[in-house]
Amino acid sequence: MWNLWHGCKRISPGCKNCYVFRSDARRNLDANNFYITKSFELPLQRKKDGQYKYPSGTLFWTCFSSDFFLEVADSYREKAWSIIKERSDCHFFFITKRILRFWQCIPDDWENGYENVTIGVTCETQKLVDERLIFFNKLPVHYKAIILEPLLESVDLSHYLKNGYRAVVAGGESGEGARIADFEWFKALQKQCLEAKVTFIFKQTGLNFIKDGKIYRIPRPHQHRQARKAGLNVHFNDYWKTGK
Description:
Helices cover about 25% and strands about 20% of the residues. It is an alpha/beta fold.
């Protein structure tokens, strides 16, 4: 996990019960407050013998306590990209709700995308799917993923999945006040991904989960396991491990 900066701003319905805000609140902190972390140059750390602490092939889950395209991070992003470029032997995966800021946030030498970067765009409703993915489809990004978490309603991705997406990751909402997720939504997504030959991952059920018309309250420790047990996951690649 490489969290270069911390803190964010809510911008869409899926942000209502954001885990970063919940986590900070438990420590009497305000997740609206942005700051650069001590881990900013984590991928460049070296051991006493001069070798990189994190070896070639390391996957960095990037900026999961904020948004890589966050507006207040603009002055720090150029340095972040330089680190990602220097560690071209590693892979970097980040997700964003701010994909519409793409052209303001990429480095000058981006061209068709850095081959060691996967960008996942987060959508939680059909309105946001249509708004963000129609834009994302046209962007020069080497590796793309769709993140439907927390999914708040049934969505149709069939118009978008033929545009080079490597995976769709979907899940319900966790934490007190979590909104309901319906198993039928995820079954429909699996079918869409099978037809398009795109990897589908049902990541977690969320706290309040409907299956066969019955509402289940699933404790946090069991949400990922119950999702796996549903047997919906379909793999066409190891997109998050190698980027290939």
